[in-house]
Amino acid sequence: MSDLIGKVHAYGDDIDTDRIIPGKYTKTLDFSQLAAHVLEDLDPDFKTTVQAGDILAAGENFGCGSSREQAPVAIQAAGVSVVIARSFARIFYRNAINIGLPVVEAPTHTLQMGHQARVDLLGGVVENLTTGETYPATRMPDVMLDILKAGGLVAYLREKGDF
Amino acid sequence: MTIGQTVAEKIISAHAGRAVYAGEVAIVRVDGVMATDATAPLALKAFNEMGGVKPWDASRVSMILDHASPAPNERVGSLHKLIRDFAFEHSCHFYDVGAGICHQLMVENAHVKPGDLFLGADSHTPTYGALNALAMGVGSTDLAATLLTGKTWLKVPRTLKIILTGRLNPGVSAKDIILALCGLIGSDGARYMSVEFTGEAVKIMTLASRMVLANMVAEMGGKCASVDPDGLVLPYDWTPTTPDYDAEYARVVTFDCDSLTPMVAIPHAPDSVKPISDVAGIPVHQAFIGSCTNARLEDLHAAADVLRGRHIAAGVRLLIAPASNAVFKAALRDGTLETLTDAGAVFITSGCGPCVGTHLGVPGDGETVISSTNRNFRGRMGNPNALVYLSSPAVVAASAVMGVITDPLKVMA
Questions:
Q1: Identity of the residue in A18, A68, A98 whose CB atom sits nearest the CB atom of B379
Q2: Which residues does A contribute to its contact with B (CB < 8 Å)?
Q3: According to CATH, where is 3.30.499.10 located in chain B?
Q4: How many CB pairs under 8 A join A and B?
Q5: Smallest Cβ distance to B357: which of A22, A28, A94?
């Protein structure tokens, strides 16, 4: 897996799934409809300013609340390459890996809006290209890394047939 | 040498086929799964993409139409049809429009039992910890993987133990305890953890009240819950799972129920919690009793006790969505329905609609809602410009009567 480099969109703590994608928009299998409303109650400009390959950064407990997988799907469909947070809510974290959206827990990161960052997923390091700082990432369980390497849980199970 | 285990470690060990402890990763056998109209469509899509042909064991699979039900538009109607067709084709347990809220139906119909390891594609799945089962919320693709294999992978959680001492005062309920605990522990204080509830206040609780405690573990970031089975009465034979005396806990919190007053979570977070005295007098426009947290018969009884012989204030609407059709019928038989409708309450279909903001009670701009539900994130009830306060059903009822947030004891005195 190659390094991911992109412009950072940074937000705070406890960004819940309703602010990632409101429940009223989740009842669809058309993912472009999810991208059209991503983060709209948090930052109405995000959905129009985000570019393919950009990086989403947040504080503690990102993705708390609902189990809706439409939350990471909306972020992925909007073109975000990786989400970096100081910590994640557990269902969001699993959902993201399962759909092949890279997520990195970097408890010490201080990324801000507009910074450039590089993420080395396998090496477990986040580099702030604007300030030169580096932040270590928490190692994910091997099974999660294998799922991410496969491109998500669908591809993983298509290949292996079982856990 | 053997080391003591928590309830989570015991139930996961039994399903992993080996003794496991917090921090280990295990592949486990799953006893049952459920998905709703909010999560099943994506799960079925992923299941098909995985090459799934039929569920590993349809008798262990439940599908429920509750999140936007009856369908508010053609898109949802078509998603309902997708789920209904799958459930019928494979003979899964299926609960159609109005049958009830998923978590209530799983417990009412014994699709989950003590000692089970259960996955639900809904974040309030920890509710079944009230039954001494270990139940976790997952997303759609995780659910699809279990539909295919009958298994999942998980990291054995550390456990937060909460000891509830003392007794509740009149007008105070399990909801007030769990709201107070959300404030104390915080929205991520139990992140990745199992939460065990024990203590004298738990042992005299009904199953419905135990479900309230376990349900809102989700609002502390918890992975699953386990309520002490001491005092739990179930209509079938079962064997309790209890922690070992020397089990290791990440944290132990003791909470005294004796001095607890009604609690209210203020906008826009379930862990922004105040005693009712701090928020009493705030005008409300909509009052809602519903959701997987507080819409069972004892909740309707608590509301009826406040509303009997009274009427809701002008300019306020009181909506009630019972937890299930069975709850609705029980309330019909015992006269609760008449008491509540005489007081001005309007009954809507059993389901999640208003709580999750899909339909049946979306508040207007600038309006304030007092609600017996579990989340008040901005936009949760469908309008980011509304203010949602969370409380017990008794507080919702008292606030509907007075038109302002009110302690039920002030109405009943």
A1: A18
A2: 14, 16-19, 22-24, 26-29, 41, 60-61, 64-70, 73, 87, 89-91, 94-95, 98-99, 141-143, 152-154, 157-158, 162-163
A3: 9-155, 159-256, 268-412
A4: 139
A5: A22
**How many structural domains are present in chain A?**
1
Quote the mean pLDDT of chain A. 96
Q: Output the DSSP codes for B280-330.
A: TT-B-SEEEE-TTTS-SHHHHHHHHHHHTT--PPTT-EEEE--SBHHHHHH
Class of domain B9-155: alpha beta
Classify burial at B54, counting beta carbons within 10 Å of its beta carbon; exposed 0-12, middle 13-18, buried 19 or more: middle
B196 touches chain A (CB under 8 A): no
Q: What residues of chain B, 332 to 391, have a C-beta less than 8 Å from chain A?
A: 356-358, 362, 375, 377-380, 382, 384
Q: Give A-chain residues touching B191 at CB under 8 angstroms.
A: 61, 87, 89-90
Q: Which residues of B touch A14 (CB under 8 A)?
A: 187-188, 269
| pLDDT for res A2 | 79
* Residue A21 Cα, gap to closest chain B Cα (Å): 10
10-residue mean pLDDT profile of chain B (413 residues): values are 89 98 97 98 98 97 98 97 98 98 98 98 98 98 98 98 97 98 97 98 98 98 98 97 98 98 98 98 98 98 98 98 98 98 98 96 98 97 97 98 98 89
Looking at residue B413, its pLDDT comes to 80
- Say if domain B268-412 classifies as CATH 3.10.20.30: no
pLDDT tens over chain A, length 163 residues: 779 999 999 999 999 999 999 999 999 999 999 999 999 999 999 999 999 999 999 999 999 999 999 999 999 999 999 999 999 999 999 999 999 999 999 999 999 999 999 999 989 999 999 999 999 999 899 999 999 999 999 999 999 999 9
Q: Determine how many CB atoms are found less than 10 A away from the CB of residue A20.
A: 28
Residues in chain A with CB shorter than 8 Å from the CB of B126 are: none
In CATH, what class is B159-256?
alpha beta
Dihedral of alpha carbons A120, A126, A127, A129, sign: positive
Q: What angle do CA B165, B296, B62 make, to 5 degrees?
A: 110
Which of these, B33, B388, B375, B102, lies nearest to B216 by C-alpha position? Answer: B375
